[in-house]
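Open question from group meeting: does this chain pack into something compact, or does most of it stay loose? Before anyone orders reagents, we agreed to write out a predicted structure and look at it together. Recording both the input and the output here so the notebook holds the full record.
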Amino acid sequence: MTTFEDAFGHAAEASASAPGRVNLLGEHTDYQGGFVLPTAIAQRATVSLRRNGTATHRLYSANLDQRLEVPVGETGTGFAPYLTGCLELSGVRDGLDVFVRSEVPSGGLSSSAALEVATLRALRELYGLDLSDVDLALRGVQVEHEYVGVMCGVMDQMASSLADTGTMLLLDTRTLERRALPFPAGAQVVVIDSGVPRRLAESGYNERRAQVEEAARLLGVQLLRDVSDVSRTEELPDLLARRARHVITENARVQAAIGADAATFGQLMNASHASLQGDYAVSHPEVDRLVALLQAQPDTYGARMTGAGFGGAVVALVRAGQVAAVTGPALAEYGPQAAVVVP
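Structure tokens returned:
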């Protein structure tokens, strides 16, 4: 296994990590000020840093076995913008050696947010930056907007920076108010990588954001978070009505999930997937097939796609102790391209 010293010939000065996340409910609502319900996963991204005394950032990804060199002040290509964006926004003018290793699968589990938060944590350690965990999350969002080109909301970075694996993080993405909630009693979360790759910047993610922003404008509100009566979507053109209907009903589902038992929570997850598949059109046929196979298992309370969509991961809520009974038959029929990520 390649180490920082193998890559650069000396030891790191600072190192930090951050987890990926899985979102249980509240998909595509965070950029409309809505409610979300993620939890952290055990897999983490780790970033190590050292000042190299040059005017060049030397970047190495252990996962890709790829080395990039980017002059200080420039963005670079490939995986570089996730790192150099953090460096630029943090005012770094030293050339840095940056070593990245991540356990977080790409596709729906916030691998990019984990990378950004880990980088910012390492920079905070190296330079003694006066940044709270919320500050780090918001800076990570800024990196996505300004350097990566994905107009994401705040959920992923907030979850990576603040969530833990033992609770769900109920987050109001407009006010950033948050509290930890227990998982439904007698249930546990299963996350499966569908094997269908996706890239947010090359998908319809930014298009969906533009559509719901236009829907909010036509409804005369700043954010769809401010609309609770779903019948108001009838005022909109059909496409925008369907997009807005998802956001409005998804916000209601998160609020209904607070304190819900496992059966109710699972039904809300199933309804969320149907809305993402139909009204928001961000699922994928293979992901839909995997979700249906999981939903068909007797010990499954509910299942849905998770993350931005267009491929990626699936999350299911299953009866505690019955993970193998659910995933075994479902994955045997789905095929070997899928892999269980959690637990």
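Observations to bring back to the group:
The first strand starts at residue 14 and ends at 25.
The mean pLDDT is 96.
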